[in-house]
# Entry
Amino acid sequence: MTLESETSILSGIRVIELATYVLAPGATTVMSDFGAEVIKIERPKIGDPYRYLSYVPPMPKSEMNYCWLLDGRNKRSLALDLTSEEGRKVLLQLIATADVLVTNFQPSILKKLRLTYEDLQPLNDRLIYASATGYGESGPLVEAPGFDMTAYWARSGLMDSVHNGDSEPTLSVAGQGDHPSSITLFGAIMLALFQRERSGKGAKVTTSLLANGAWANGCMLQAALCGAEPYKKPARSEAFNPLVNHYVTSDDKRFIFCLIQTEKDWPNLCRAIDRPDLIDDPRFAGVVERAAASAELVAIIDAAMATKTLNQWAVIFAENDLVWSPVLSPQEAARDEQMIANDIFVDFKHPQHGLLRTVNSPLFVEGSQKVSPQPAPGIGQHTREVMLSLGYEEDEINSMVERGVIAY
# Structure
């Protein structure tokens, strides 16, 4: 444990991670950033399948295991066979000393392994048991495997909500639903820890990709719940509101307008594109009129945008107080000065790759430092030291390695 972690907000909090992929491990990564000790339980020799995602097309090509570098940071890895009685004994020893257990195992697997909240609560009544699922704790899909692409993106209605009428629904990118959902799980854990300060007792907390997808798509789902009638999706060239639309500049750069304060924004836009004559044009007099003449107005803005580069337009947009954003690629976003200025990326030293940057967790507490990121562990990298800390002797550890109970 580093000096930083000893003085951080979650110093002294021990977390056991019984989870794979992104949602649940993402929550423990955030906890580790604030000083919690996270012990990740992995299958001997195989580990978390997420370790291999960076190498699967269409993920960007790299010799670095960048996905694992992101969500595996700061953790200790214990390779442990949970199907063996000896492995279970080791896990229960750890749970007895833990503040939080985080899992995304399916209910049937937890029952088979005797690792439900009801199984573990008598062992440690101060334990916060955090369960992340794809589709929730009940219902016909309770046992279904859920990824963010299916549970968060597709089933929540998000996938259908975001595409134009002239395009097919698009796939989500890796972690797109998992990472925001991990913040929800982190928040639930923090609530339970706060409650424990009052009651002295632990609790079970849950969240799901489906619930988080529904929350992300809350406005559209609330519309459906209220019986609102959806419009037919238009093509980009016929957007309902041409002032909330994306355009292309002369240097083939894309950006998006978000001009929703129309009384101010409409005349400012007209002046920005050097078309003050449009301000009082009856075709575009208000929101309803602009929607009716959408194709015509989009064509006018398209033609104007094609006359200057994005950098030139950026100056003009600022002068006219227009709300907009460039549409950045991940490579461009990684160099974005606004992200860098807000510590959205953080530097750390990697033993093989030298000085690197990683994506910071999106929470900051004034006056409290996060710990410096530590490289993600190898499978079972910390097995021996964890076992020694539990009081096992060297010969016991070696025997358990030989029998496949543990590995390092």
User: Anything to note?
Assistant: The CA atoms of residues 342 and 360 lie 10 Å apart. The domain at 236-248+254-326 is CATH 3.30.1540.10 (formyl-coa transferase, domain 3). The mean pLDDT is 97. The longest helix spans residues 178-199.
